[in-house]
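ARCHIVE CARD
Drawer: 12
Card no.: 0347
Subject: one protein chain, sequence and derived structure
Cross-reference: see card 0346
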Amino acid sequence: MSSLHKKSLIATAAIFCCRFTGLLREIVFTALFGATAALDAFLTAFRIPNMLRDMFAEGALSQSFTSVMSKVEKQDGKEAAWALTNQVVSQLISLMLIIVSLGVLLSGVFIQALYPERAVADFEQPAALTAPADMTVKAVYGGTSTDADGRTHASFRLMAPLAVDSAQPVVRVSAVEKLQVGQEVTLSAATKVPAGALRVEKQSFMGLAAGLCRIMWPFILMASLSALCMGALNVFGIFGLPNLASAAFNLTTVGVGCLLGWLIDPSFGPTALYGFAVAVVLGGAAQILVQIPALRKKGYRPRWNLGLSVQSAKLVFANPAVRRIWYLMLPGVIAAGITQTQVFINTSFALYLPGGSVTALSGAFHLWQLPVALFGVAVGMVVLPSVSRMSLQKGNKEIPEHLAQAMRFVAFFAVPSAVILGLWGQEIVSIFFQRGRFDAHASALMGQVLGAYCIGLLGYAGMKVLQPVFLALEKPWAPACLALFACFISLSLNYCFIHVLGLGVMWLALTTAFVTTLNFLFYFFYLRHLLGSMACSILIPGILRILGAGALLGVFCWQIKELFFTDFLAWGFMSRFAALAVGGCFVGMLYLAACFFLRVPELEAFARRFLARKK
C-alpha cells in the first residue's frame, strides 16, 4: 500500500467521525422539529455563514495556505512557516471581524433576498364588522415600506376583519407591486382563491430566520481560524486530528443546543432554535480548542503580526508569501465554492416549494457528502501538500501518476456508494431520519432527492481530488471562470424546473449533480493540458474495471429492492435496520467479489498489505 493510500485512510477514519457526528446533528434536528418551515428557516439562516465558511475558510483559504506554507517550510524551514502563519492569522482575524459585523447588521437584508416573494401584511381593521375566514373582503391598498431589518410591509385598510391562520400574515410581493396606492382590492385567506383576489398566506418564518442568522454570523470567524489550524497541521503530516475538530463542533452543537433549546422551550417549538444557533457559535470555538495542543507541540507560538507596511501612502505585504496566499485565495473563493454556491441557489429556489423542501435538500446533501468526504476530501487533503512539493521541480513526471492513483482510489469507494445510495435512498433515509416528527412521507421525499444527487457523486468525488491541484500549480483562475459559468447553468436550470415547468425539489438536486460532473470533466481535461498527460494508461483500465463491478452491484441492488423491500417505509425500525444491514453486507461482499474477478488494482493493493502484515 502506497504512502498516498495510507495517509488517505488515516484522514478517512477521522473524517468518518466528523461526518457521522454531522449526520447525528441532522438526525437530532429532524427528530425534534420535523420537516417543517421552522427548521427550513434555521437551515436557511445557517446556510449564509456556512456557505462563506466552505467557500472562504475551509475551501480557498485553507487550500491556498497549505500550498504556500508547504513550499515555505521546505525551502526556508519551520520558523519561517510559523512566522507566515502568525501574519495570516492576524490579517484573517481583522478581516473576519469586519465581515461578521457587516453580516450581523445586514442579516435582515440577506434573509429578505431569500424570501423575495412575501411581504408582511399590515391590516387596519374596523372593530364592528365581521367576516368568515373562507370569504373575501374588500380592502384599500396603502403601499409598501421597508423596516430596519430589510423586511417589506404591505398595508391594507379592510372594509371588514379578515380571519387568518397566522398572527403575522404575508402576501405575495409580486401581487402588490402592480397596485396603485389607494386602489381597492379583494383579499382572501381561503385555500381556493377566487379570480382577482390577493391571497393572504401563513407566516413564512422570515423574522425567525433573520434572528437566527444574526446569532450565527460569528461562526465564520471561528471556522476560518479552525481552517488555518487544519492547513498548518496538514503541512506537517497530521491529518486525523484536524478532521476530528469538526466532530467536536457537531457534538457541541447537539449537546449544548439541546440543553439551551430545552431551557428556552421544553416542547421544542420554533423558538428553541435560538438555543441551537448559540450552540453553533460555541461549536466553532470548540473546533479551534481541540487543535491548539497539536500546534504547540509542533512549535507554533501565537504572535500578533499584521505583516503590513506603508509605502508611498499604500499598505503593502511585508512577506511575499502572504501576498501569494491571498492571490491564490481570490479566485479560489469562487472555484472552491462551486458546490456550496449551488446548494445556496437550491435553498433559495426550495423556499418557493412546500414546507420541508429545504430540510429534504439539507439531509440528502449530508448523506451524499458522506462518501465524498470520506474519500474524495481525504485524498484531496493528502494530494495538495505532496503535489505542492512536486511542483517545485519543473517537468515533474510523477504528478500525473500521483493523480491517476488518487482518482482510481476514490472511484473504488465512490462507485458502490453512488449505486447503493441512489437505489436504496429512501430506505437509508428512513433508518437515519424517520423518527419523532419526521414521518414516512418526509423519508420518501428526502430519498428521492438523495437519488438525484447520487447521479453526480463520482464526478463530485473526482472534483474534490483535482481541485486542490490548481492551487498547488498556482493556476487558480481557470476553475474560477468555470465557477461563474456553472452558476449561470444552475440558475437557468433551476428557474426552468421550478418556475416554468413547476417540478419538485428532486430536480434541484439533479441540477447539482449535472454541474458537479461538468466541473470534474473540465478539471480533468484542463489539467491534462497543463501537465501534458494524466497517466491514462494507469487511470482508465482501473476505472473501467471498477465501473464493471459497480454495474453488477446495481443490478443486484435493484432486484433486492423490488423483491424484498416492498412497503419498506411502513415497517418497524428494527425490521428496517435488520433488512438493510443484511442486504448491505450481501451487496458489499458481491462488489468485492466482482472487483476480485475483474482484478481491480486497489483491491489487490489492500490484499497485499493485509498479507504482508499477517506474515
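Annotation on reverse: The chain has a mean pLDDT of 79. The first helix runs from residue 3 to 33.
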